[in-house]
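Action item from last meeting closed. Structure (350 res):
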């Protein structure tokens, strides 16, 4: 599930000089949707106690309550996040747009108050999302639209659990909640890939510890296997991107660019199919047949950058999730942007 970090200082940004009419419309819609979500939120305990709540939903909501309590024991900043529940009344909460040049993996960047620079933009209005993607495509960019069922406001608002995030997979639900608590605990401005990759590490390892304490070794093992699969997938994408960057560095003409991307797409497909036996929880499916799209690669890398570094950090602390997250938070004090990964890399050196 995609997690979108929303720039919650948007309301105060109307007075800034860089805003144009389309941006005002976007911020107005985002603000109105956020207000509607918050207005419809009900306390989790109230929804759980409501006899009208479906039994399966009641069990999942109770799981969220339990996860929140465990997150606090791990030193995660749970705050008021996920103490309420909102049924948004639709299957897809929002669409996220990312874009990149066709001749390089160069993410298009949006700038906002509070969160800084981010390589994507989320839209509650599907028409606005598609219009933004079409505008970027006219500029000759690769674009990618993906759905997202949840987001975080980094403690600025009392984030409710949304119906679109209420997956029936209890392991993934627990990991998602821990993922959001991780964002509340550690956030580095203008370092989207670091923030999301950190939250992946924290989410799955915390979920494994949670299920171990409940005596559910099956789900605990599956959480760690999913984390292992994420790391394998990260390695595949890193290999693909290195090949693409080498190809783009030769500055191919238009015809060579198209044919080269097709050839690298074929290599990507064959490689991914050969790797299929390595995955414990993922199924390759149609993913292998996707053509090269730099914007899609920008999107997937947001959640899969240097994942092995986070695992090394975890193992160096004897698998202690609480200690690992606390130490990483201390290490990142004052960090901004690319300095986050540079600090982590330096800390991992012998």
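Sequence:
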């Amino acid at each position: 599930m995609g997690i979108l970090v929303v720039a919650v200082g948007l309301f105060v940004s109307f007075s800034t000089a860089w805003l144009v009419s389309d941006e005002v419309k976007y911020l107005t819609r985002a603000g109105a949707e956020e207000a509607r979500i918050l207005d419809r939120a009900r306390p989790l305990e109230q929804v759980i106690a409501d006899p009208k709540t479906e039994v399966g939903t009641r069990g999942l909501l109770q799981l969220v309550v339990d996860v929140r309590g465990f997150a606090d024991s791990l030193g995660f900043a749970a705050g008021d996040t996920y103490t309420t529940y909102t049924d948004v009344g639709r299957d897809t909460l929002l669409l996220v747009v990312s874009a990149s040049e066709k001749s390089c993996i160069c993410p298009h960047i949006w700038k906002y108050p509070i969160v800084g620079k981010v390589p994507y933009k989320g839209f509650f209005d599907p028409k606005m999302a598609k219009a933004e993607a079409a505008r970027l495509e006219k500029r000759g960019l690769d674009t990618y639209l993906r759905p997202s069922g949840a987001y975080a406001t980094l403690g600025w608002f009392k984030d409710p659990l949304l119906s679109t995030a209420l997956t029936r997979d209890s392991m993934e639900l627990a990991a998602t909640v821990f993922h959001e608590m991780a964002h509340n605990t550690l956030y580095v401005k203008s370092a989207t890939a670091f923030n999301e990759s950190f939250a992946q590490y924290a989410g799955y390892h915390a979920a494994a510890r949670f299920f171990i304490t409940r005596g559910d070794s099956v789900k605990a093992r599956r959480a760690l296997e999913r984390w292992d699969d994420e790391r394998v997938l990260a390695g595949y994408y890193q290999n693909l991107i290195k090949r693409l960057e080498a190809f783009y560095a030769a500055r191919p003409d238009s015809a060579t660019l198209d044919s080269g991307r097709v050839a690298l797409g074929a290599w990507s497909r064959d490689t991914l199919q050969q790797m299929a036996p390595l995955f414990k929880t993922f199924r390759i499916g149609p993913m292998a047949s996707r053509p090269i799209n730099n914007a899609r690669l920008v999107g997937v890398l947001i959640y899969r950058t240097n994942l092995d570094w986070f695992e090394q950090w975890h193992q160096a602390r004897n698998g202690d999730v609480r200690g690992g997250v606390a130490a990483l938070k201390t290490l990142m004090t004052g960090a901004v942007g690319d300095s986050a990964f540079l600090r982590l890399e330096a800390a991992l050196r012998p």
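Note appended to the action item: The radius of gyration is 20 Å.
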